[in-house]
Please model this.
Amino acid sequence: MIMNKRIELLLSNYPQLEVCVPEILAAYEALRDAYASGNKLLLCGNGGSASDADHISGELLKGFQSTRPLTAEQKAVFGEELSSHLQQSLPAIPLTAFSALSTAYTNDVSAEYIYAQLTLGLGNAGDTILGISTSGNAVNVGHALKVAKGKGMKVIGLTGQSGGAMKPLCDICICVPSTETFRIQEYHLPIYHVLCLMVEDYFFGKEDEH
Model:
């Protein structure tokens, strides 16, 4: 297996995550291929995992370690002043962000199906969804993954040791080696940072050597 420098650094800090490397690489390849084809990423989770969904979107929608300057063609369209304040973006939609729809759906239908409804409305074949659940048993996340699968999307899970009910719904399931919620969350953060960095490296330049 050819080891990316980002992965090597991850393992130097978190050697326990070596068991996750094949799935991390597969998730990276899925994200890379989706973005290369002009597709997008949807993300969902609850509680701390909802915050992670927002966090990941923030790393993708603007520069993370790269400044991601606009192309000459983009600068010609937007003008120098506006272009100097913009950065290249990788489309990522946190399904946690739709407060009006979520509260309406909770009131009118059921909170259990909010993420599924959003996936139905926003997802397309070729897109990717990342479901985050420390237990792997978040019912609303599971419903979203089922809809995504039915729409021809690539399904990635980020969860705890067992994978829970989510695991068989995923094309790729990154199951970190812990059963404790706080420890699972601590492992999730460096994994999704590495995924974001590797995707950014691919589209916007070589990784920072410093």
About this structure: Strands lie at 41-44, 92-94, 128-132, 154-159, 172-175. The chain has one domain: 10-63+91-203.
